[in-house]
Design a protein that fits this description.
about 0% strand, mainly alpha, about 65% helix
């Protein structure tokens, strides 16, 4: 080799237009593949997140429904107790009936909607 000859550029291989276009297409397929994988993985993460949110909401709803059922049972028990205490048999069995006095001339008040009543005696 001649010592005066210097290579200014490294030796490169010759690529035809067809080969360059083929590499661009492969790069396009690779980037598309990576993009699709990223989209699918993000959709999967979103799906898992939505499932978690819905599960939490349904758990809270079930707890509230359980409390509602317990309160309805308690309300029914209280209604039964009220009906029992207001029953005629309970009133007659109590000692308060013996202390009651008969009245001679009762005045009755009939209440109607939209009318004001004044009791004058």
């Amino acid at each position: 080799m001649n010592p005066k000859v210097h290579l200014k550029q490294p030796q490169s291989f010759f690529f035809s237009k067809r080969k360059k276009e083929k590499e661009k297409v492969q790069l396009g397929f690779t980037s598309t593949y990576i993009f699709i994988v990223c989209i699918i993985s993000s959709l999967l993460l979103y799906y898992v997140w939505i499932l978690n949110v819905n599960a939490t909401k349904w758990f809270n709803i079930r707890e509230l429904e359980k409390d509602k059922r317990e309160l309805q049972v308690e309300l029914e028990k209280l209604n039964v107790k009220i009906a029992e205490l207001q029953s005629l048999d309970t009133i007659l069995e109590s000692g308060d009936v013996e202390n009651m006095v008969d009245i001679d001339d009762p005045d009755f008040l009939v209440i109607r909607e939209g009318v004001q009543y004044v009791y004058n005696n």
